[in-house]
Amino acid sequence: MLAGDSTMAPRTGYGDALCGLFKWQVECANLARGGRSTKSFRGDGSWDRVAGHLRDRAGRGTTYVLIQFGHNDQPGKAERSTDLATEFPANLRRYVEEVRSAGAIPVLVTPLTRRQFDASGSLKTDLASWAETTRKVATELSVPLLDLYADSAASVSRMGPVRADELAQAPAPDPVFDHTHLGPKGAAFFAGLVAREIAQAVPGLAAQLVVGAVEPAGRIARPQLSAAQARDYSYREVLGGWDPLSGPLAKGEPLKADYIVDRERPDGQRTFATVQAAVNAAVRSAKEGAPSRAFILVRPGIHEGLVYLPESPVAITLYGEGGDPAAVRIRAKLDATVTGDAYAQAFGSAFNDAPASVTAMFASLKSRPTVGTPGSAVVWVKQSGFEVKNLTLENSYNKDRGDRLDQSQAVALLLDDADRAHLENVRLVGYQDTFFLAASSPERPARAFVHRSYIEGDMDFIFGEATGFFLDSEIRTLGDRAVSYTLAPSTHYKRRFGFVFDACRFTGDGTPNARAGTFKLARQWYRATEAVGKVAVLNSTIGPHIDPVRPWADWSIGTPRYRPVQYDADEHWDRLLAAGVDPVKELRYPPRMQPAERFLAEYNNK
Asked: Cα torsion for 514, 518, 521, 524, to the nearest 10°?
């Protein structure tokens, strides 16, 4: 629970942003109110709301109450100002005692600094004495202390007045501009400082912070390629001898349907009510002398259900009728925590009469305790040469309510060792783990080409070990969470390319979390020692939702699986050798190369 003034309150303070830094299982109630002091917060009944929550929480687990005042206790208005030497500390003591008597844990927070500078350019320190009194009460009563004043004053002093003004609710001369209250950027910044204080002073509460809420110190870089180096990441270099731009999908040539998905007029021969039924017919059509590709036209509408495409001599092209991918949607609701039994009950009937290769995919999941991340895929592709155009593939998990609660992996499209997969004018819709590009071995080709498409999510929503070349596409981060990573590559050291983006647009959704500008471009999925994670972003637009200073993040911060970001092969080798691992003998790496291969790189981005 948060109890305090406007610098903590919803809309004007950092409190809601701080709540977003806790795991979704944590109930975080921001009860701070604007214009309140230690006196008026009790006098107007605001403290009664805190007391009511404390009664409701009794016996339901550990409860913390963060208490921050000072701004409105200063002289100015009789109904709220308090005496610094007597009344202010007495009010803090009373709050602490009442929280403890309710069985909860009080935490005192020193006031957030104002962002006002004097004529010499020095930060004004008019709240310093109120912060010091808060510290003394915390020491006297053995209460955990979050020294936000010291942290915020130091940070704002380093910024200077121009940068500090960027933290306001709106830029000057907007009427709401001032040097006290916060917009999304300021809220996220100071919430981060509070989270860092929590990590140091309140271990029990720190354990409930989300991964990445507090970033450790480390090397920060944005490696840039020269024009010559950027050519090593060209379309032809990445995809090799495969040239999907010369094919009919990219050229917009008419496609002739072998099968049709039409829920209103199925005949069971050429026209089917479900996408899976049409896929089943295409798989069964495989025979000597038959065409090596089947084209499946999907009529407009929402087509509920899973779609599994097994390894097959018949490659499949799924394409929506018309040019609007939003008009033709393949959709299902399935997340990684679903049990095998629940999965079989919900989706089993769709696979009753499927070919053996399809039923084997279904059977591999139904006996599991949970289906896991790969098993949550709405569309699961194991074949080479798969193509999809003018369609939306959507995992609708949490789409009806937003992704603030019950967060889980929920894949829209899984390319499972599926080489030469081509996505043309496609929408991939989900939250966490929307697009999974999986590859079992660096020696096995696994390439995907994504062209003029749209992919959305909020956590690791393009991830995996395979190679993906993304051209002229939009990668949109949704702001349901306060901490977000766009990419989670797990590229094997021996695989030359991971994810390459050329002429793409990385966009945010305009929510307060996105406008805070703290989201990350990528973190390298530490799936195995050899999984280094490779990304190159070229000629693209990276929106203001991405942290401009530190876009590349460490993996799994604050957990036993933590691994710092690795910008290049030299860092990877040096860490292995420092850990006593011989990359050549133990990991079968080729001899160390110079210059070092870049794992994370940019060129000509805006």
From this structure: -130
